[in-house]
Amino acid sequence: MTDATPTPNAAFKPRIFSGIQPSGGLTLGNYLGALKRFAEKQDEGIETIYCLVDLHAITVWQDPEALRRQTREAAAGFIASGVDPARSILFNQSQVGAHAELAWLLNCVARIGWMYRMTQFKDKTAGKNAENSSLGLLAYPSLMAADILLYHATMVPVGEDQKQHLELTRDIAAKFNHDYRTDFFPITEPLIEGAATRVMSLRDGTKKMSKSDPSDASRINLTDDADAIAKKIRKAKTDPEPLPDTVEGLQDRPEARNLVNIYAALAGHTPAQVVRDFAGAQFGTFKPALADLAVAKLEPISTEMKRLMADPAEIDRILGAGAARADAIARPILEKTYEIMGMVRSR
Question: How far apart (Å, rounded) are the C-alpha atoms in residues 86 and 321?
Answer without folding.
Answer: 10
